[in-house]
Amino acid sequence: MSPAAPVADVVIAGAGPAGRALARACVALDLRTLLVDPRPHHAWTHTYGSWHHELPDDLPADVVAARGRGVVVARHTHELEDEYVVLDTRALQEHLTDPAVALRRGRAVSAVAAGPGRHPAVVLDDGTAASGRVVVDATGARQALARRGATGGGPRAEQTAFGVVVDREVAARVSGDRLLFMDWRPRHGRPGWPTFLYAVPLDDRRVLLEETSLARRPGLPMPELRTRLRARLRAAGLTDAEIPDDPGAVEKVRFPVDSPRHRSPAGVVAVGAADPLVHPASGFSLATSLRLAPQLAAVIADALHGGAEPAAAARAARRVVRSPAAVTVHALRRRGLETLLAMPPEDVPGFFDRFFTLPPAHRRAYLDARDDVTASVAAMTSLFGRLTPRLRLHLIRGTLLGAHSVRTEQ
């Protein structure tokens, strides 16, 4: 396929938060921008949360639906100093949607690499293509525009969750009217890999109660999570009638936390979960995508306005997303993920007990400092010093051997 002359300066495949944030930042710099998605007007339904200090300063006040200081319950209860923010999904989508961005309906299936006399392009499932001076893969874990090839066998490690939305008064009987970032108490009564309750307000009257498996390879299935959540809520005194089961009040979450590095064709750069920018230990990626979008757009604009070839412009953009420091920090976090996956189930709550005794600066560094190697190493060193001898042994074994021998449990 030989795509025609570019239809835009930047063509972005994927109209989720990462794609829309970058598209908005690009048009603000007068770059002709095309957003390609199979359902470009589809309303987002997932709940997005973040620590307040991670979010960009220009986020409008109405995008914040609720906020509060989180609580972690493991062997002990930890009152967190940092403020946790739950976003209004509809307001976030409206904020990131700029009418100056052109839209095209279509599912991206592959990319045409830039070459001599040829611009990169997004190939759609109807056989057509949309070419640009730079092409961006924002298709999430699907990595639709990556070059195909061996990326390692076996299932991916996934974060999975099953949640229900209930009235605040009902939720208070479970959460004590607290924002529960993690509640590891096994009140669901089920054996096997531990899960926790995530209880966050969606607004003044509604609360999401979600049974969450932070990471597992493969991810815990939805029926198991649903069973655990309902058992946990019944143990707290809720009746079956108070636990919704209709689709409009249910949220299901499943995404990989160890996606392979994007094998980008010439002229293509990946953002968001396609890169991947997902934190291997927490599953967070939204705040990073929002913060990086203006930086990434500025580099692309400078390269294109300076006459750079598509491949060179994409390489400059990739250096923003995957600087040497960011690559190093991500590798350290991936080892942290393997350590968690290799840990005996009964030790996981105790591990998080120790983690949440870290000073706030160290916790922030591990959860947020994506390109600060020194701070990340300091946080991991501090955590190691706080672990019991048994947990230190597991950490060393997980770091050296990975989680390939972990047994699958429910």
Automatic annotation (TrEMBL):
Keywords: Carotenoid biosynthesis, NAD
Keyword NAD appears in the UniProt entry: yes
One Pfam family this sequence matches: Lycopene_cycl
One example GO MF annotation: oxidoreductase activity, acting on paired donors, with incorporation or reduction of molecular oxygen
Entry's Gene Ontology BP terms: carotenoid biosynthetic process
Record bears the keyword Cytoplasm: no
PANTHER family per UniProt: OS02G0190600 PROTEIN, PTHR39757
Record-stated family: Belongs to the lycopene cyclase family.
Protein name: Lycopene cyclase (CrtL-type)
Organism of origin: Actinomycetospora cinnamomea
